[in-house]
Amino acid sequence: MAHEKNRISGIKVGGFKSISTEQRIEIRPLTILAGANSSGKSSFMQPLLLLKQTLEAPGDPGALLLDGQNVRFTSTDQLVSKLAGKDLSPGFRVCLDLLERESLEMTFRREEGRGFELDRMIYTAANERIEMAPNMSHDDILQILPQPWKSFHQDLAKREKGPLHWTVSRQRCFLSFGLSSDQEPRRQITFGPYGVLPSQAFIPYIQGVIHLPGLRGNPRRTYPKTAGGPYFQGTFEMYVASVIARWQTENDGKLETLGKALEEMELTWKVKAVPVDDTQVELRVGRLVHSKRGGAHDLVSIADVGFGVSQSLPVVVALLAAQSGQLVYLEQPEIHLHPLAQRRLAGVLCDAVKRGVVVVVETHSALLLREIQTFVATDRMDRKNIKLHWFQRAEDGSTTATAADLDERGAYGNWPEDFDRTELEAEKAYLDAAEIKG
Question: Is 47 domain-assigned?
Answer without folding.
Answer: yes
